[in-house]
Amino acid sequence: MRAAAASASVTPTTNASASLTNSNHFNFTSHRKIYTSLPISTVKNSHKKSTLVVVRAIKDRKETETETETENMKEHNKESTTKQQQPLNLEDVNPVGLGRKSRQIFDEVWRKFSGLGQISRTTRADDKEALDALLIREGPMCEFAIPGAQNTTVLVVGATSRIGRIVVRKLMLRGYTVKALVRKADEEVVNMLPRSVEIMIGDVGDPSTLKAAVVGCNKIIYCATARSSITGDLFRVDHQGVSNLTKALQDYNNKLAQLRAGKSSKSKLLLAKFKSADSLNGWEVRQGTYFQDAVASKYDAGMDAKFEFTEAGDAVFSGYVFTRGGYVELSKKLSLPLGYTLDRYEGLVLSVGGNGRSYVLILEAGPSADTTQSKLYFARISTKVGFCRVRVPFSAFRPVKPDDLPLDPFLVHTMTIRFEPRRQRPVEAPAGAKQDLRSFKLILEYIKALPTGQETDFVLVSCTGLGVEPTRREQVLKAKRAGEDSLRRSGLGYTIIRPGPLQEEPGGQRALIFDQGNRISQGISCADVADICVKALHDSTARNKSFDVCYEYVAEQGRELYELVAHLPDKANNYLTPALSVLEKNT
Question: Which segments show compositional bias classed as Low complexity (predicted)?
């Protein structure tokens, strides 16, 4: 199973919305014999006729209600119906099947109009926009709608990019509410996007402009990329931009959780928050060695550590270890709120700062009444100079004794943070600055348990480096990988897509390779990448996975790297689930 463990190949036969070649027209593939043979004049006429059917249905329904409605209500409905008779542009509504669902729209529109309530209520200025949104998100345009789309708002960052423009239209065809984040809302940008898309002005490099953009959003698709190879631009868009948006979405989710009294599905479980000297109670500093050595006895006070609350308001665990094979650690027995257990969560997230050392996070699991039966599980974590969030899934913990069973979070009762000099790596520092890897400083802000999630919160379109000019490839990849790393550490459910060189051609034409390991060598169409972004939103197998994707290619004999795991030419075309099910999580 050499190939199955590494990658997968699928043939995605798309439906009528799968391939969009530019921002102004649709290229239908799976229904080609029905729709692409229509001349443009026929499409326009059918669009006009279908629109009239919708308006006429509303009018007919109004006439049947004349015996029960007052005169003022009839005048209100006439005025509202007249306002709705302005036909929508071909750019905004897919004319295919518009008349097919006119009855469905009529029932929904009439329900909304009937809900206006009081006779004295005046006509709303945004009634036309409400009907337009209904036609696009809930009506005939949405014959490819998927469950949950109507209740999901997606923020598309980089909505005017090659991939972003296609993503926006695919989302609309499936019934999502779409918001687009752009730096400037000039006429050129507005004309690129459908009228029903809510345009938000902001800069991913400026956190203050992102708060309003994420309000009401459930998910984010990040398609933005720096337009130049200048280090500042790469850092601002590909690294800091991702970090700023993840923090903005988390802050918004936390605010919702507070309003819902902590009962939101996004609510984290607070295990420790270090905001005062009293919050340090129960934490114990210990030291020890992995083995005894005669050389160790030559060191006097070879290691030391302390945990204190400073005047600056920080909880600091610091010290040094000079003893060969020595370590120091900070440990506490967990006390969970009544009714809570860690098996309902998928991992831990730590907000920490310091001098960039790595640590060993140890969980002790077993019967709390008899700690002699407890087992130890460890995971290595790395920090950065300054503050950062470290995400550690429970699946990353390994038993200290290889024969022990995998970690059961339900039985966890003690947590330990250990520092040891071995395996420490120098961090980036000013030229000439000396680093003593045997000393450490760890500032603790909080430790929380991450709720178990089924779906992706943040889809990031990164790159493999193929197709990038060799002179700027290293800079681009460094910024991209830093952005990916910040997303993995954020605690959000993520999907990171690294496509091969992008090509401007219809999607759904060729088989795709899904791989992990930087081995792909082919390109892929923008439409296929956009389709993967949209499918990943509600696919549980895509959560917390990073993968490369490209067109199928013929490998040399004896060096095959993939195998066919799905060939799905049906309408649902759910190729992503079997393709990603064989790939590893949290990589």
Answer: 1-19
Average pLDDT over residues 335-341: 86
Do residues 359 and 379 make contact, with C-beta atoms less than 8 angstroms apart?
no
Own/partner pairs for 393-399, CB < 8 Å, 24+ apart? 393/346, 393/347, 393/450, 393/544, 393/585, 393/586, 394/342, 394/345, 394/346, 394/347, 394/348, 395/346, 395/347, 395/585, 395/586, 396/347, 396/586, 397/361, 397/363, 399/375
Per the CB < 8 A criterion, the answer to whether 131 and 109 are in contact is: yes
**pLDDT attached to residue 513:** 87
Q: What is the pLDDT of residues 489-517, one digit of tens each?
A: 887 889 999 999 998 888 888 888 888 88
Q: Are 480 and 548 in contact (CB under 8 A)?
A: no
468-474 long-range contacts (CB < 8 A, ≥24 apart) are 469/229, 471/229, 472/229
Q: Identify whether the C-beta of residue 445 lies closer than 8 Å to the C-beta of residue 206.
A: no
Name the β-bridge partners of 364.
Answer: 376, 414
List the one residue out of 497, 479, 460, 462 whose CA is nearest residue 228.
479
How many CA atoms, within 13 angstroms, populate the side-chain half-sphere of residue 124? 12
For 174, residues 6+ apart whose C-beta sits below 8 A from its C-beta are 17, 142, 144, 145, 146, 149, 534
Report yes or no: 404 and 381 within 8 Å, Cβ to Cβ.
no
φ/ψ of residue 456, rounded to 5? -80, 140
Residue 269 near residue 345, CB atoms below 8 Å: yes
* pLDDT, average across residues 210-224: 93
How many C-beta neighbours within 10 Å does residue 70 have? 9
Angle at 385 between CA 380 and CA 387, to 5 degrees: 85
Residue 522 CA, chain-centre distance (Å), reads 25
- pLDDT tens for each residue of 107-136: 566 556 555 543 333 334 455 555 455 444
Terminal CA-to-CA distance of the chain, rounded, Å?
20
Assigned token pair, 246: 């993840």
For residue 441, the SS3 value is strand
Q: Nearest 5°: phi and psi at 380?
A: -90, 135
Structure-token pair, residue 378: 């460890």
Nearest by Cα to 335 from 293, 282, 388? 282
Q: What are the tens digits of pLDDT across the range 277-330?
A: 999 999 999 988 876 655 555 554 578 899 999 999 999 999 998 887 889 999
DSSP code per residue over 312-351 = TS-EEEEEEE-STTEEEEEEEE--PPTT--GGGEEEEEEE
Give the range among 89-93, 172-176, 351-355 with minimum mean pLDDT.
Answer: 89-93
Closest CA to 243 of 490, 42, 7: 490
Rounded CA-CA distance 568/37 in Å is: 25
